[in-house]
Amino acid sequence: MKTNKLLINIGLPLIALSVSACSFLPISRTEVHETGNYMISRMITPDYGLHVQDHVTLLFGTAFIPFKLSDFGIDKIVAGDQLEIHYTGDYLEYETYPSRIDTSNMSVTSMNLYETRIVEYLVLPVPGDAEKKDLVPTEEFKGYTMVSAEYVINEDGTFVSLESFMKTAKADTKLYGSNPASFNSLNVTTLFSYNPRP
C-alpha cells in the first residue's frame, strides 16, 4: 500500500510539470538546406480578426513576421505568396496563436518570395434567376472555378463574409482571387475586393 501511495505522490507532480511545460516549450521547425545553412518556407496566410478585431493580419504560416522584409528587397506580400527564408543558427517558433518566432539565435542570409497568381472574377446574375448571383472567372482565368475562400479582404485591411459581399454586390463587380503558386490546382484560397498586385 505504501508503494502505491509513493507512486501516486511522485506521479502527480511529474504530470503537472509536463502539462505546464508544454505551452512554454519552443518548437523547432527547420529544414536542412546545406551544411550550416537552413531554409524554411511557409505560405503567407490571412488571420481574419482573431489577432486584430475586424482586420486581417498576414502571417508566415501561423506566425507573426518578425523580419523587415524590405531589407531583403521584398516590398509587398499578399495572402497566398510563398516566403522562403534562408538562415544560419536556430529557428524557434513558440506555440501560441499567432505563433512567435524567436530570432535571437538566427541570422537571416536571404529571402525568396514566390508570388501567388491573381485571378479575376466578375459577380454575375445566375441565368434564369435574377435574385441569385454567381462568382464567374473572366475569360483569361475561366478554369479557376474552385473557390475555398469564405471572406473578402478590402484594401483598408477589413473583411466581410463572401456571402454578405455577394448579397450587396452589383452585377459586373470585380473580385480578385489568390491561387498560391505552390498549389498544383486551380483552387483560390483568398478573395479581395481590389487587385492586391496590380
Can you put this structure into words, describing what you see?
The protein has helices at residues 2-22, 162-168, and strands at residues 26-28, 31-34, 37-48, 56-60, 82-89, 92-94, 100-102, 106-114, 117-126, 129-137, 151-153, 159-161, 174-179, 190-192. The protein is mostly beta strands. The chain has two domains: 26-114, no CATH class; 117-192, no CATH class. It starts with a helix and ends in a 6-residue tail after the last strand.
Which SSEs are present, and which pair or pack?
Blueprint: H1 2-22, E1 26-28, E2 31-34, E3 37-48, E4 56-60, E5 82-89, E6 92-94, E7 100-102, E8 106-114, E9 117-126, E10 129-137, E11 151-153, E12 159-161, H2 162-168, E13 174-179, E14 190-192
Parallel strand pairs: 11-14
Antiparallel strand pairs: 1-6, 2-3, 3-4, 3-5, 5-8, 6-7, 9-10, 9-13, 11-12, 13-14
Question: Nutshell version of this structure?
Answer:
By secondary structure, this protein is mainly beta.
The general outline is elongated
* Number of beta strands: 14
- Give the amount of beta strand, in percent: 35-45%
Low-confidence stretches: 1-28
- With helices defined by DSSP (H or I, 4 residues minimum), what is the helix count? 2
Task: Report the average pLDDT across residues.
Answer: 84
